Amino acid sequence: MPLSAPFDTIAQVVAALLVLVGLAGIVLPALPGIPLMFAGMLLAAWADGFRHVGAWSLLALALMTILSLLADFWASALGAKRVGASRKALWGSVLGTFAGLFFMPFGLLLGPFLGALIGELWHGSQWRKATQVGFGTWLGLVAAIILKLTLAFAMLGLFAAAWWL
Question: 0.85 exceeded by the pTM?
Answer without folding.
Answer: no
